Amino acid sequence: MFKISEFSRLSRVSLKTLRFYDQIGILKPADIDKETGYRFYAAEQLVTLNRILMYKDLGFTLQQIQQLLHEEMSVEQLQGIFRQKEREMEQLLEVEQARLNRIKERLLSIEQKGYVEQEVVFKRVEAQKVVSFRSEGTVEELPMLFDRLAHYAGKQQRGMLSPIVLWKESERDETAFELEIGYVLKQDISLPTDMLAIRMLPEEPMMATLVQRVEPFVPSTACIDLAKWIERNQYRIKKDQPGRENYLQSPHGGDMYVEVQIPIESP
To answer: Which regions span the lipid bilayer (predicted)?
Structure first.
Protein backbone atom coordinates (compact mmCIF):
# COMPACT_ATOMS: atom_id res chain seq x y z
CA MET A 1 0.00 0.00 0.00
CA PHE A 2 1.20 3.51 -0.76
CA LYS A 3 0.44 6.77 1.00
CA ILE A 4 -1.25 9.30 -1.26
CA SER A 5 2.00 11.30 -1.52
CA GLU A 6 3.92 8.19 -2.64
CA PHE A 7 1.16 7.22 -5.06
CA SER A 8 1.25 10.74 -6.47
CA ARG A 9 5.00 10.53 -7.12
CA LEU A 10 4.73 7.08 -8.70
CA SER A 11 1.84 8.04 -10.98
CA ARG A 12 2.97 11.64 -11.58
CA VAL A 13 -0.57 12.78 -10.83
CA SER A 14 -0.95 15.69 -8.41
CA LEU A 15 -2.33 15.30 -4.89
CA LYS A 16 -5.08 17.76 -5.78
CA THR A 17 -6.20 15.59 -8.71
CA LEU A 18 -6.13 12.38 -6.66
CA ARG A 19 -8.26 14.00 -3.95
CA PHE A 20 -10.68 15.23 -6.62
CA TYR A 21 -10.93 11.74 -8.14
CA ASP A 22 -11.69 10.41 -4.66
CA GLN A 23 -14.36 13.08 -4.15
CA ILE A 24 -16.24 12.27 -7.37
CA GLY A 25 -15.80 8.53 -6.92
CA ILE A 26 -13.77 7.80 -10.02
CA LEU A 27 -10.74 6.51 -8.07
CA LYS A 28 -11.18 6.01 -4.34
CA PRO A 29 -8.30 4.99 -2.04
CA ALA A 30 -8.01 1.30 -1.27
CA ASP A 31 -7.99 2.18 2.42
CA ILE A 32 -8.30 5.20 4.72
CA ASP A 33 -6.73 5.19 8.18
CA LYS A 34 -9.59 5.82 10.61
CA GLU A 35 -7.36 7.58 13.13
CA THR A 36 -5.25 9.81 10.86
CA GLY A 37 -7.48 10.05 7.78
CA TYR A 38 -4.49 9.19 5.55
CA ARG A 39 -5.40 7.76 2.17
CA PHE A 40 -3.65 4.59 0.99
CA TYR A 41 -3.59 3.21 -2.54
CA ALA A 42 -2.85 -0.29 -3.79
CA ALA A 43 -0.30 -1.01 -6.52
CA GLU A 44 -2.99 -2.35 -8.87
CA GLN A 45 -4.71 1.04 -8.73
CA LEU A 46 -1.87 2.39 -10.86
CA VAL A 47 -3.37 0.36 -13.71
CA THR A 48 -6.79 1.94 -13.11
CA LEU A 49 -5.25 5.41 -12.96
CA ASN A 50 -3.40 4.81 -16.23
CA ARG A 51 -6.72 3.84 -17.85
CA ILE A 52 -8.27 7.08 -16.56
CA LEU A 53 -5.41 9.10 -18.04
CA MET A 54 -5.68 7.22 -21.33
CA TYR A 55 -9.42 7.91 -21.58
CA LYS A 56 -8.84 11.58 -20.74
CA ASP A 57 -6.25 11.78 -23.51
CA LEU A 58 -8.85 10.36 -25.91
CA GLY A 59 -11.20 13.20 -25.00
CA PHE A 60 -13.69 11.39 -22.77
CA THR A 61 -15.33 13.35 -19.96
CA LEU A 62 -14.89 12.24 -16.35
CA GLN A 63 -18.53 11.15 -16.30
CA GLN A 64 -17.96 8.98 -19.37
CA ILE A 65 -14.74 7.59 -17.84
CA GLN A 66 -16.58 6.65 -14.66
CA GLN A 67 -19.10 4.79 -16.78
CA LEU A 68 -16.34 2.99 -18.68
CA LEU A 69 -14.56 1.98 -15.47
CA HIS A 70 -17.37 0.96 -13.19
CA GLU A 71 -20.26 -0.29 -15.31
CA GLU A 72 -20.46 -3.79 -16.74
CA MET A 73 -20.63 -3.29 -20.48
CA SER A 74 -20.93 -5.60 -23.41
CA VAL A 75 -18.54 -5.40 -26.33
CA GLU A 76 -21.32 -3.79 -28.38
CA GLN A 77 -21.87 -1.08 -25.75
CA LEU A 78 -18.16 -0.28 -25.60
CA GLN A 79 -18.00 -0.11 -29.38
CA GLY A 80 -20.99 2.23 -29.37
CA ILE A 81 -19.32 4.62 -26.91
CA PHE A 82 -16.07 4.69 -28.89
CA ARG A 83 -17.89 5.16 -32.19
CA GLN A 84 -19.78 8.09 -30.71
CA LYS A 85 -16.48 9.62 -29.60
CA GLU A 86 -15.08 8.97 -33.07
CA ARG A 87 -17.98 10.91 -34.64
CA GLU A 88 -17.49 13.78 -32.17
CA MET A 89 -13.80 14.00 -33.01
CA GLU A 90 -14.51 13.92 -36.75
CA GLN A 91 -16.94 16.83 -36.33
CA LEU A 92 -14.33 18.76 -34.33
CA LEU A 93 -11.78 18.09 -37.06
CA GLU A 94 -14.18 19.48 -39.67
CA VAL A 95 -14.66 22.64 -37.62
CA GLU A 96 -10.92 23.07 -37.07
CA GLN A 97 -10.16 22.36 -40.74
CA ALA A 98 -12.65 25.07 -41.74
CA ARG A 99 -10.97 27.46 -39.29
CA LEU A 100 -7.55 26.56 -40.73
CA ASN A 101 -8.84 27.24 -44.24
CA ARG A 102 -10.05 30.68 -43.13
CA ILE A 103 -6.64 31.44 -41.62
CA LYS A 104 -4.95 30.45 -44.88
CA GLU A 105 -7.43 32.63 -46.78
CA ARG A 106 -6.56 35.60 -44.59
CA LEU A 107 -2.83 35.02 -45.04
CA LEU A 108 -3.26 34.86 -48.80
CA SER A 109 -5.25 38.10 -48.73
CA ILE A 110 -2.53 39.83 -46.71
CA GLU A 111 0.16 38.59 -49.11
CA GLN A 112 -1.76 39.67 -52.22
CA LYS A 113 -3.29 42.94 -51.03
CA GLY A 114 -1.10 44.02 -48.13
CA TYR A 115 -4.05 44.38 -45.71
CA VAL A 116 -6.54 42.25 -43.84
CA GLU A 117 -9.93 41.82 -45.49
CA GLN A 118 -13.07 41.81 -43.43
CA GLU A 119 -13.87 38.45 -41.93
CA VAL A 120 -16.43 36.06 -43.34
CA VAL A 121 -18.61 35.09 -40.38
CA PHE A 122 -20.92 32.10 -40.00
CA LYS A 123 -24.12 32.79 -38.12
CA ARG A 124 -27.58 31.43 -37.46
CA VAL A 125 -30.20 33.90 -38.69
CA GLU A 126 -33.51 33.87 -36.85
CA ALA A 127 -36.85 33.99 -38.66
CA GLN A 128 -37.74 37.56 -39.70
CA LYS A 129 -41.02 39.20 -40.64
CA VAL A 130 -40.69 41.42 -43.72
CA VAL A 131 -42.92 43.59 -45.88
CA SER A 132 -41.85 43.48 -49.51
CA PHE A 133 -42.65 43.33 -53.20
CA ARG A 134 -41.19 41.13 -55.92
CA SER A 135 -39.54 42.14 -59.16
CA GLU A 136 -37.05 40.92 -61.70
CA GLY A 137 -34.04 42.98 -62.65
CA THR A 138 -30.33 43.68 -62.35
CA VAL A 139 -28.19 45.05 -59.54
CA GLU A 140 -28.06 48.41 -61.30
CA GLU A 141 -31.83 48.73 -60.92
CA LEU A 142 -31.78 48.45 -57.11
CA PRO A 143 -31.80 52.24 -56.43
CA MET A 144 -34.92 52.60 -58.58
CA LEU A 145 -36.55 49.63 -56.83
CA PHE A 146 -35.76 51.12 -53.40
CA ASP A 147 -37.44 54.35 -54.51
CA ARG A 148 -40.49 52.34 -55.50
CA LEU A 149 -40.43 50.59 -52.10
CA ALA A 150 -40.32 53.93 -50.27
CA HIS A 151 -43.24 55.15 -52.37
CA TYR A 152 -45.28 52.02 -51.60
CA ALA A 153 -44.47 52.15 -47.87
CA GLY A 154 -45.30 55.83 -47.43
CA LYS A 155 -45.87 56.85 -43.81
CA GLN A 156 -45.83 53.23 -42.65
CA GLN A 157 -42.00 53.31 -42.71
CA ARG A 158 -42.10 54.20 -39.01
CA GLY A 159 -42.97 50.58 -38.27
CA MET A 160 -40.10 49.27 -40.37
CA LEU A 161 -36.43 48.62 -39.72
CA SER A 162 -33.57 48.17 -42.19
CA PRO A 163 -34.07 47.62 -45.93
CA ILE A 164 -33.53 44.08 -47.13
CA VAL A 165 -33.08 42.54 -50.58
CA LEU A 166 -33.57 38.86 -51.36
CA TRP A 167 -32.20 37.56 -54.61
CA LYS A 168 -31.67 34.40 -56.62
CA GLU A 169 -30.85 33.72 -60.24
CA SER A 170 -33.68 34.19 -62.70
CA GLU A 171 -34.81 31.07 -64.50
CA ARG A 172 -35.92 33.14 -67.50
CA ASP A 173 -33.09 35.66 -67.92
CA GLU A 174 -29.42 34.84 -67.29
CA THR A 175 -28.57 38.55 -66.92
CA ALA A 176 -31.21 39.26 -64.25
CA PHE A 177 -32.21 38.18 -60.76
CA GLU A 178 -35.49 37.37 -59.12
CA LEU A 179 -35.59 40.11 -56.49
CA GLU A 180 -37.62 40.77 -53.39
CA ILE A 181 -37.20 44.28 -51.97
CA GLY A 182 -38.56 45.17 -48.57
CA TYR A 183 -38.12 46.17 -44.96
CA VAL A 184 -37.67 44.09 -41.83
CA LEU A 185 -40.66 44.80 -39.59
CA LYS A 186 -40.31 45.83 -35.94
CA GLN A 187 -44.07 45.76 -35.37
CA ASP A 188 -47.24 44.69 -37.13
CA ILE A 189 -48.53 47.18 -39.70
CA SER A 190 -51.53 47.54 -41.96
CA LEU A 191 -50.52 47.35 -45.60
CA PRO A 192 -50.68 50.77 -47.29
CA THR A 193 -51.06 49.18 -50.74
CA ASP A 194 -51.76 45.79 -52.24
CA MET A 195 -48.43 46.09 -54.07
CA LEU A 196 -46.76 45.01 -50.79
CA ALA A 197 -47.05 41.71 -48.94
CA ILE A 198 -46.03 40.60 -45.47
CA ARG A 199 -44.34 37.27 -44.96
CA MET A 200 -42.04 35.45 -42.56
CA LEU A 201 -38.53 34.64 -43.78
CA PRO A 202 -37.51 31.22 -42.44
CA GLU A 203 -34.72 30.71 -39.95
CA GLU A 204 -31.43 29.78 -41.59
CA PRO A 205 -29.13 27.62 -39.43
CA MET A 206 -25.95 28.44 -41.36
CA MET A 207 -25.36 31.72 -43.19
CA ALA A 208 -22.02 32.88 -44.53
CA THR A 209 -21.99 36.65 -44.04
CA LEU A 210 -19.79 39.55 -45.07
CA VAL A 211 -20.17 43.23 -44.16
CA GLN A 212 -18.93 45.94 -46.52
CA ARG A 213 -19.26 49.71 -46.59
CA VAL A 214 -21.43 50.92 -49.46
CA GLU A 215 -20.01 53.72 -51.59
CA PRO A 216 -22.50 56.06 -53.29
CA PHE A 217 -22.91 55.25 -57.00
CA VAL A 218 -20.33 52.43 -56.73
CA PRO A 219 -21.67 48.85 -57.04
CA SER A 220 -20.82 46.75 -53.99
CA THR A 221 -18.55 43.74 -54.55
CA ALA A 222 -19.56 42.09 -51.26
CA CYS A 223 -21.81 39.50 -52.89
CA ILE A 224 -19.18 38.48 -55.45
CA ASP A 225 -16.43 38.44 -52.80
CA LEU A 226 -18.51 36.22 -50.53
CA ALA A 227 -19.51 33.85 -53.34
CA LYS A 228 -15.84 33.44 -54.33
CA TRP A 229 -14.90 32.75 -50.71
CA ILE A 230 -17.60 30.08 -50.43
CA GLU A 231 -16.37 28.40 -53.61
CA ARG A 232 -12.71 28.49 -52.54
CA ASN A 233 -13.54 26.95 -49.18
CA GLN A 234 -15.68 24.24 -50.79
CA TYR A 235 -18.97 25.04 -49.09
CA ARG A 236 -22.24 24.51 -50.97
CA ILE A 237 -24.77 27.28 -51.53
CA LYS A 238 -28.32 26.17 -50.73
CA LYS A 239 -30.27 26.36 -53.96
CA ASP A 240 -33.74 26.47 -52.43
CA GLN A 241 -33.21 29.67 -50.41
CA PRO A 242 -32.32 33.15 -51.73
CA GLY A 243 -29.34 35.20 -50.70
CA ARG A 244 -30.03 38.26 -48.57
CA GLU A 245 -28.64 41.77 -48.34
CA ASN A 246 -29.32 43.84 -45.22
CA TYR A 247 -28.62 47.56 -45.54
CA LEU A 248 -27.47 49.10 -42.27
CA GLN A 249 -27.00 52.76 -41.38
CA SER A 250 -24.04 53.66 -39.15
CA PRO A 251 -25.28 54.63 -35.65
CA HIS A 252 -23.25 57.84 -36.03
CA GLY A 253 -24.94 58.70 -39.32
CA GLY A 254 -23.39 59.01 -42.74
CA ASP A 255 -21.90 55.68 -43.80
CA MET A 256 -24.14 52.90 -45.07
CA TYR A 257 -23.13 49.23 -44.82
CA VAL A 258 -24.44 46.12 -46.49
CA GLU A 259 -24.36 42.69 -44.87
CA VAL A 260 -24.56 39.97 -47.49
CA GLN A 261 -25.94 36.66 -46.22
CA ILE A 262 -25.74 33.48 -48.29
CA PRO A 263 -27.26 30.24 -46.93
CA ILE A 264 -24.74 27.41 -47.14
CA GLU A 265 -24.22 23.76 -46.30
CA SER A 266 -21.05 22.04 -45.10
CA PRO A 267 -18.75 20.58 -47.76
So the answer is: none
The Cβ of residue 216 has, within 10 Å, a number of other Cβ atoms equal to 6
CATH of domain 121-265: 3.20.80.10
- Report the C-alpha gap between 52 and 266 in whole angstroms: 35
pLDDT digits (tens, 9 = 90+) for 113-141: 654 456 788 999 999 999 899 998 887 88
pLDDT at 247 over 90: no
**3-state class of 173 per DSSP?**
coil
pTM: 0.55
Residue 264 belongs to what H/E stretch? strand 256-265
Q: Which of 17, 15, 47 is nearest to 3 (CA)?
A: 15
Give the right CATH number for 2-70 from 1.10.1660.10, 3.30.450.20, 3.90.1230.10, 3.30.200.20.
1.10.1660.10
Q: What's the rounded Cα separation, in Å, for the pair 181 and 160?
A: 13
Question: b/e per residue, 80-116, with b = 16+ CB within 10 A?
Answer: eeeeebeeeeeeeeeeeebeebbeebeeeeeeeeeee
pLDDT at 264 over 80: yes
* Exposure on the CB side of residue 104, measured as CA atoms within 13 A: 9
